[in-house]
Write a structure and sequence with these properties.
The complex is a heterodimer. By secondary structure, chain A is α+β, with helices and mostly antiparallel strands. Chain A contains eight helices and nine strands. Chain B folds into three domains: 6-178, Rossmann fold (3-Layer(aba) Sandwich), CATH 3.40.50; 192-278, Orthogonal Bundle (Helix Hairpins), CATH 1.10.287; 298-660, no CATH class. Classes of the chains: A alpha+beta, B alpha/beta.
Chain lengths: 219, 663
């Protein structure tokens, strides 16, 4: 069964309310859902939501579906930002349109292409799919941002991804160059790493922009 | 930064005067020992520190090597010939426009591979390069082996291994400088495609440049505006064709030119390193490294910080400097011997009461100005600078910076601001000057504000610690108040002051045992700066207070301020301390000290007075520097805000203490 776009959006908002903000229920008007709309019937018929005295509850079936929708939306956001280089409101708008195309296995393909990202550009977590769990199990981590490494893990710098040219040059001059070995020493309160015999400290925002190919077996 | 006073002082030795036969420029990454080498070569003194990016200004000195007079230029640290920061621009300026006869590229032996990329750039630019592989002693201790003759052969230039701090390798370097043959050097090739692109651009260039055409072409491709300007001027009508060609090439390589170039250079460096460099597989972490680990982990780093502060600031500066030494100098020497002697001498020699009053009266230049400056402030500031220099040279500050970065981000700063903030505990005026090294205007304004408001300088801190130490509760209230206001105002400022949020990155130099001589020289040069700056102000303050007294204006002012004072629950006598406080905050605190010894203040009043005075308007010197660094508008705004907040806080705190009766 394929949900309408409107139904997907409502389910998505509801899922965020319940799963991420910890509300048990929400009000009908808060998610702009009205009983006389077809989408209302669509959602109640599929047993995704339950409405009692104007309060909307997410049923287990709806939870599962909502999770998938949120995952698709956040993957779409990553695609907009990382690959198409679209930022801000425009990115959000495009991601909203794009997410509806990501069903029937397209999301798995996208997720693999993006190397199973764990967070959306705004730092919220992307619910992992089958492919992510499989990838983690097989130990094939591929290229990850420095923030994904654990202290004392090392790898080879794969690429640097930043809009800011100056920042890129600064990092490269510091020896953060593709092909160089990097060893993460500490992640909190700042990221500390070794390149060669020098030590550097950077903040999380910069660490996010350094991508590292993890060494097999070193993790 | 950190080179107050001393760096310019080495300038007059030879300010680029034409009578030097050889011009020698030192260049290299930050914190590789350029300044140490400069000092060793010239015998002049430049502030040296174990903190990246300390030399912003250019130091020049002269020396005679093998009968040839040489001018030595110490440049700020640069990572690459393509400048990003202000310091790098300054450094390249010298290479571009001063045509040095020898460029000494100094690098850190332990990071040979990483830093050789810049040697390549310098050689490629056609500059007369000598490579100095410095810090050999530490590299050897780590078990690294470098085949210097082989490296020299591969590069085709003289390569000198040194340990500048231990004066090793200096005779060889001197020899290489005078015997330099600028025709000899190797040529390095990039990939075929890049070389072809460069050739196309170079073929269009006909002007003459101080750097090689290949180097210029590469800089053009990296969109170096300054170099583009130079080429435009040199080529005249031919420039549009070059611009067109560069734009073409840039477009074709738009994906990743910077990266490709870095990788090409890396390949060349790899070839050079082959057979030259060998490192042991495993090595034992030395004590410095273990200490470094402790310093950067919150779990051990925070206790370590507290221990450092307790012994360094509280015990050494507070108890020893502000206690023992002040008691001796001020109590025994001044009050016991010097003042009675000078007063009786003046009374015998000078017949006019009014002049006596000026020199040895209640607010006399000698009895008050000199006594405060030398008896109270000097020992406190000296002990603080000693402590600060020791920490600076140990390499602790960059670690502290990364430890507090997260917290500082909340108040709109980055970890980098830890240096001006800590220095502020020594002298806020000096610290305000150092805010210049922060990257964005937003950080500079916030740091300036916080320094003006909530960071007490060492002189003030010493006096306040001494004052409140009799009432431990009062000390706690004062401390909590300062911390709260620091965080609150910072939080607010980070919301209000416009501008982008900054990023934090920093190289961590190895932690090492500070060299006593270096620490002492540095403390001395800071003291000298401080005394030159404050003594005139202390004398001026004495004169103004004397004027105020004889014209009765002073009494009137005290009268005006009385309502304000009583509103915050203080006796009228404290007004005097506040008026002192306008000249210097520490001076005001010292005024409180006098009141307290006379038993005029109880614990509550003392706390309120201490808090208000700490927050109160910065001293005149700091205000002047604020105006110079940030502009009149910002300085006045900060001044007004600070004074308003100081009295409001004083008022509220007084109410609060009365209501809760905690003191």
């Amino acid at each position: 069964m394929k949900l309408s776009e409107k139904a997907e959006e409502i389910l998505e908002r509801l899922w965020v309310e319940v799963e991420e903000e910890g509300n048990v229920f929400t009000d009908l008007d808060k998610i702009t859902l009205f009983p006389d709309e077809p989408v209302y019937r669509e959602l109640t018929d599929a047993a995704f939501i339950e409405v009692k005295e104007g309060r909307v509850y997410l049923r287990p079936e709806g939870k599962e579906e909502g999770r998938k929708i949120v995952r698709r939306f956040r993957l779409a956001e990553r695609l907009m930002m990382d690959v198409f280089n679209i930022r801000g409101e425009a990115a959000k708008e495009k991601a909203c349109q794009f997410e509806h195309l990501l069903n029937e296995g397209v999301d798995t393909k996208l997720c693999t292409m993006l190397n199973h990202p764990s967070t959306c550009p705004h730092g919220k977590s992307i619910p992992p799919g089958e492919c992510c769990i499989e990838a983690r199990r097989s130990g094939n981590l591929g290229v990850v941002s420095l923030t994904e490494l654990k202290p004392n893990e090392e790898g080879e710098i794969a690429y640097i991804q930043t809009e800011d040219n100056k920042k890129m040059q600064k990092l490269m001059a510091m020896g953060v160059l593709p092909g160089n070995r990097i060893r993460l020493l500490q992640t909190f309160p700042s990221y500390i790493f070794n390149v060669g015999y020098s030590e550097f400290a950077i903040d999380t925002n910069m660490a996010r922009e350094i991508f590292v190919r993890k060494q097999q077996g070193s993790g | 930064m950190m080179n107050f006073g001393k760096k310019p002082a080495s300038t007059p030795v030879a300010d680029g005067s034409g009578n030097c036969a050889l011009k020698v420029a030192l260049a290299g990454n930050p914190n590789v020992g350029k300044s140490v080498l400069f000092n060793a070569l010239t015998g002049a003194y430049v502030t040296v520190s174990n903190y990246p990016g300390t030399s912003v200004e250019v130091a020049r000195g002269s020396t005679v090597i093998g009968g040839v007079s040489c001018e030595i230029i110490d440049t700020p640290g640069m990572y690459s010939i393509l400048p990003i920061t202000e310091e790098e621009r300054v450094a390249r300026e010298i290479l571009l426009h001063e045509s040095p006869d020898v460029v000494i590229h100094v690098l850190d032996a332990r990071n040979l591979e990483r830093m050789l990329a810049m040697t390549l750039q310098l050689i490629e630019a056609g500059l007369p390069v000598i490579l100095v592989v410095n810090i050999m002693d530490e590299a050897e201790r780590m078990g690294l082996a470098i085949d210097i003759p082989l490296l020299a052969e591969k590069l085709g230039i003289p390569v000198i291994p040194t340990a500048a701090a231990k004066k090793r390798g200096l005779p060889e370097l001197r020899e290489a400088i005078v015997g330099y043959d600028r025709k000899r050097h190797a040529v390095f090739g990039y990939g075929r495609k890049l070389e072809a692109d460069l050739m196309e651009i170079m073929a269009l260039m006909s002007g003459s440049y101080t750097l090689s055409k290949k180097s210029i072409a590469l800089l053009l491709l990296q969109r170096d505006e300054e170099v583009a300007g130079i080429v435009r001027a040199a080529e005249g009508d031919a420039y549009p064709a070059i611009e067109e060609k560069v734009r073409d090439k840039m477009f074709a390589r738009r994906d990743s030119f910077h990266l490709d170039l870095s990788l090409e250079r890396k390949m060349v460096v790899k070839g050079l390193m082959d057979g030259v460099f060998s490192a042991p597989d495993k090595r034992k972490p030395v004590f410095g490294e273990r200490l470094s680990r402790w310093a950067v982990r919150p779990l051990t780093g925070i206790p370590l910080l507290l221990i450092t502060l307790y012994f360094g600031l509280y015990k050494f500066v507070g108890s020893f400097g502000a206690g023992t030494v002040v008691d001796f100098l001020e109590g025994t020497l001044f009050e016991g011997y010097f003042n009675p002697w000078i007063i009786s001498l003046t009374n015998r020699v000078v017949p006019w009461e009014i002049v006596r009053e000026l020199f040895v009266g209640e607010y006399g230049i000698i009895t008050l100005g000199l006594r405060y400056a030398v008896g109270i402030i000097l020992p406190i500031v000296t002990t603080f600078f000693l402590f600060f220099s020791l920490l600076e040279d140990s390499g602790y500050f960059p670690r502290l910076a990364l430890l507090v970065d997260r917290l500082f981000k909340k108040i709109g700063l980055t970890g980098r601001a830890v240096i001006p903030m800590v220095l502020g505990f020594g002298c806020d005026t000096m610290a305000t000057m150092v805010t210049r090294t922060l990257e964005t205007m937003r950080e500079r304004i916030i740091a300036t504000l916080l320094l003006a408001l909530a960071i007490p300088c060492s002189a003030q801190l010493g006096v306040i610690l001494g004052l409140l130490s009799k009432f431990p509760g009062a000390l706690v209230v004062w401390g909590v108040c300062m911390l709260l206001i620091f965080l609150l105002v910072g939080l607010l400022a980070s919301k209000v002051v416009p501008g982008e949020s900054p990023m934090f990155y920093m190289e961590l130099p190895p932690m090492r045992l500070p060299q006593l001589s270096n620490v002492l020289t540095k403390t001395y040069s800071r003291m000298q700066w401080y005394l030159m700056e404050i003594l005139p102000l202390f004398i001026l303050a004495s004169v103004l207070l004397w004027l105020g007294k004889i014209t009765n204006f002073f009494q009137t002012l005290v009268g005006w301020m009385e309502p304000v004072m009583s509103a915050i629950g203080l006796p009228r006598e404290t007004t005097v301390a506040f008026i002192f406080g306008f000249f210097r905050r520490d001076y005001g605190a010292a005024g409180l000290y006098d009141l307290q010894t006379e038993g005029l203040l109880d614990a509550r009043q003392l706390t309120v007075a201490a808090v208000t005075l700490t927050l109160f308007i910065p001293c005149i010197a700091q205000f002047l520097i604020m105006q110079k660094e940030r502009g009149t508008k910002v300085a006045v705004a900060i001044g007004l805000f600070v004074s308003g907040l100081a009295f409001c806080t004083g008022y509220l705190l007084n109410r609060f203490i009365i209501l809760t009766g905690i003191l």
